[in-house]
Amino acid sequence: MPSAVQTQLQSALDQYLVHARDFDATISADETTQCFNLYLPMLNEVAATFSSSYSSCVKTANAEAANLTAEAAKQQTIYKQEVTSLCSAFTSCDSDNDTGTFFSCYATAANSDVAVIYDIATNAATSASSLAEGLNAIQDTEYQCTNTTESNYVRDTAATYDLLDSCLRYGLPTVSTAAPVPSTNSPVASSSGAPTTVVSTVAPTSNVPASSSAAAPVSTAAPGTPAAVKTPAAAA
């Protein structure tokens, strides 16, 4: 995704350069070069920030999903062990050659294992539900993170293009005699049409919501004991 967006940025810049000659500008060729030298590094910085932030969103989500799945795998192993133990109780009855004893053995094993089987069924269903809900919560948080990152990228790129456009039309920005006020918006033109903002105007937005550091829990109740359903915290 980051590479695709950066490709779109380069395409937009190419189109921008093609139509740049249509501007009703009075600046010199040297000033035009200075404008691009000033704002192209800013565009590159915005793109680099986007790529890093987007990758961080994805990596965090993948790590949380892996941790959640690993916990579920531990629970799966416990269930398998419990079922193996249940089967062994019946298998031991098969070695008895006496028919009467065989039936009694099966009846005893079945009676002893009814409660355990019920608990395994209940806990396994709870674990499955918790795992699905946890993975969905992680995906929701990842979406919010990447979506915010993309929004910041589009906003910062558009703001930088506005500054470049103003520079190409009116010339390089000049430092105002008033106290400099940092701004992320395009410069306000003076009565002469020349921008009066400080050169350093746009910084890449970095307020990207990080993925939740705590993945939604999977029920870890041991088979044979009732397990309460654990609902993952809502994604921020």
UniProtKB/TrEMBL annotation:
Residues 32-150 form the Protein TsetseEP domain. Residues 203-236 are annotated as: Disordered. This is Protein TsetseEP domain-containing protein. It holds the Pfam family DUF725. It comes from Drosophila guanche (Fruit fly).
